[in-house]
Amino acid sequence: MKLFRGLDYATDIDPNWANTLLDNGILPSFRGGYLGISALRNSDVLTAVSIVAGDVSRFPLVIKDRSNDAIVELPQLDYLMNTKVNQRLSAYQWKFSMMVNAILTGNAYSRIIRDPITGEPSMLEFYAPSQTQVDTNDPDNPIYRFTPYNSSYQKVCSFDDVVHWKFFSYDTLMGRSPLLSLGDEIGLQESGVSTLQKFFQNGLKGSILTAKNSKLSADARKKMREDFEKAQEGASAGAPIVIDSTMDYQPLEVDTNVLNLINSNNYSTAQIAKALRVPAYRLAQNSPNQSVKQLSDDYIKNDLPFYFEGITSEYQLKYLNDSQRHQYQVSFDTRSVTGLPVQDATAALNAGLLTGNEGRTDIGKKPLKDKNMDRIQSTLNTVFLDVKEAYQASNSGALKGGDANGTAKQGNSNDRDAGHGA
């Protein structure tokens, strides 16, 4: 494969040919095989990245009022975040690609195209990290330069007009991939797989060949080994080995415990799951004594917010103006998975803790426009505490009904006895 190509070939045949050579290991790269698209050759990394990107992309985003957590209808932003970002990309495809790049390279970029009249975001243009240059000479005003495929010009954008996803950053300007910490683990896993491949491919070479009643020099031993290997060329595993009476062939025994250790080594897989914040059971690892429901809820509530917060804060910073940021907040709607069970919502409704619409919201349903659904319900068996205290205070000197009647009856009986005696 040629390393030096004409400009026409580079743009017409493969506009991203340089990155292709880097990812395939043809050109040397400081990234090794653990960052970028080449990292997806590892099945555990591919699975973990697919899980995280898919889970983040499938949950819709909502805009809430900060004062009461009510969902606010902003149709243009809702359409852009959850339905379609431009003429060729759905919101799901865009979010998935952004997530993959942010995890594999540490950064993901898209240019915001705004409405010329209102200034609100109307479309997004996705750019791969290889198409993006970030000028951080002025940390307070970074400049983004995008180079479209098959183009020789750049699009220069300010900080406010670029969606930049980064989940781990120590300088607030550029993100770092979690795969940077997994070089040793992935290398250990690849070495184990390579060892197994070599064993099954070259299992016949683990042997001792003895020349009977002979004292051989180093060159003679080397020549004898080469002649023996040449004689066995093309033989498949299990094929007979032919030697003469001057030789003694003895195969070496292989310690299968070593092979079992390599084949059952789950350390690397567990480390990949930990670094990418994926439940170990989803990478075919043993899980704690919890139900799948409990593990899933814990993953969504405690692990995915690491990604959720980075995305929603970027949305609020780039999609909303300053007054909207004080009034609204963007969040992921996970109620389809983590919403209240219907029984719990019903109990809270009957206890007067939630209105009907709040109960519907908490179980993942849209609120109704009936005004009675926004009223607190109560039963006749309960009263407010201040009403109870006022009632007790106003009747503190009164006797119980039974006691009053009993006293009256006793008094009437005494009166009759006194009259009879007289």
* Shape, per Cα inertia axes: elongated
The number of E-state strands comes to 11
The pLDDT mean sits at 80
User: What distance lies between the first and last C-alpha atoms, to the nearest angstrom?
Assistant: 137 Å
Count of spatially separate domains: 3
Strand order of the largest sheet: 2-1-11
**Rg calc:** 37 Å
What profile does the largest beta sheet have?
Answer: 3 strands, antiparallel
The fraction of residues assigned to DSSP E strands is 5-15%
Number of helices: 17
Helix content: 40-55%
Structural class: alpha+beta
- Could you list the spans in which at least 5 consecutive residues all have pLDDT below 50? 1-13, 23-32, 418-422
Give the SSE string: HHHEEHHEEEEEEHEHEHHHHHEHHHHH
InterPro entries: Phage/GTA_portal (IPR006944), Portal_HK97 (IPR006427)
Protein name: Bacteriophage portal protein
Organism: Schleiferilactobacillus perolens DSM 12744
Region (Disordered): 396-422
3D structure, described in words:
- InterPro entries: Phage/GTA_portal (IPR006944), Portal_HK97 (IPR006427).
- Pfam families: Phage_portal (PF04860).
- This is Bacteriophage portal protein.
- It comes from Schleiferilactobacillus perolens DSM 12744.
- The protein is an alpha+beta fold and 422 residues long.
- The chain has 17 helices and 11 strands.
- The strands form 4 sheets. Strands 2-1-11 form a 3-stranded antiparallel beta sheet.
- Helix 3 (43-58) packs parallel to helix 9 (267-276) and helix 6 (183-201) runs antiparallel to helix 9 (267-276).
- The longest helix has 21 residues, at 401-421.
- It is elongated and about 120 Å long.
- The chain starts with 6 loop residues before the first helix and ends with a helix.
